[in-house]
Amino acid sequence: MDNCTLFNFSLNDLGFGSETAGLEYGVLGNMIPDKQDFSPIFSFQSSSSPATTPTSQQPSSIQQKSTPKRDNHRRKSRNTENVYNSVQKPFNYAEGFHYLIQYVTEKMSREDLRRISRALSLFRPSFLSLIMNLTEEDLVFMEKCIQRTLLEYEKLISFSGTPTVVWRRTGEVCLVGKEFSLLTQWTKDMLLNKKTYIYELMENQSAVEYWEKFSSHAFDNTDKACSYSCILRTPQRKPVPCTFCFTIKRDIFDLPSVIVGNFLPILS
Known about the structure:
Strand content: 5-15%
Radius of gyration: 18 Å
Number of strands: 5
Number of helices: 11
Oligomer: single chain
Helix content: 40-55%
Strand order of the largest sheet: 2-1-5-4-3
Structural class: alpha+beta
Largest sheet: 5 strands, antiparallel
C-alpha cells in the first residue's frame, strides 16, 4: 500500500526533505482526526487485527503480533566506533506511532483515545516546522547522535540507585536500569529483547496523563523535569504506585530524541 492510499493524501505534495520524516508526520496526522470524527484511527488498523474490549487489566498481545524480536546489539559490548558504523539508515519512528494507534484503539476507551489524540495535536505544528526540511542524511546523523547518547546514559544508569528507564519519543524503551527491574519485576531481557513501549507498562490512566504532559513540554525549549504520580504494572499485572519524573532530551535539530524517566515507589 502506498502512502497516498494509507493517509488519503500524498506526502510528496507537502515538500518534506526526507520520506522517512514525512512518513512519521503522516502517521501522527492520521491519528488526529478532524471535527472529533475518530473513524480514521479505526480504518488505519490492519484487517487481520480483531477488535477487543478496552481494558487496563489485560496484558498487551498486540506487540507479539506486530513487532519482531529486537536486535540485541545494545546488550553487547559497544564502543564509539561501533555505534557510528552500525547506523546506516534513519530510525523508523513511524512504526512506533503506528503501534501507538493500534494499542490505544484496542486497549483503551474512546475517551482515552480522544485525550491522546488531542495531546498529539498540540505539538504537531511545531513538529512539522522542525522536520520539514530534514534530509535522510540529517536523520542518519540524528540516529548516530542518539546511539552515542545512549552509550553514555548506559554508564550513568549503572552508577545510579534510582529506578530509571530511557525511551524514544514514540515511547519505545531503549535502556533499563537494574533498579527498575527490581521495582517492577520487568527484566532487561523482557523489555529489550523485543520492542516494548513505556505506556504498555503503565495503567491506562497513567499512560494518558503521560502523553498529555509529554505533548505540553515536547517543544517548550526547556530541560525542566515533569513530575506526577503514575501506576506501573508488573508482568503479573499487579499495580505499583510510583512518583514519576521524566526529562525530555533534544537533539541538535531541537527535536525530542530520548526521554529519561525516574520512578520512586509510593509506600503506604
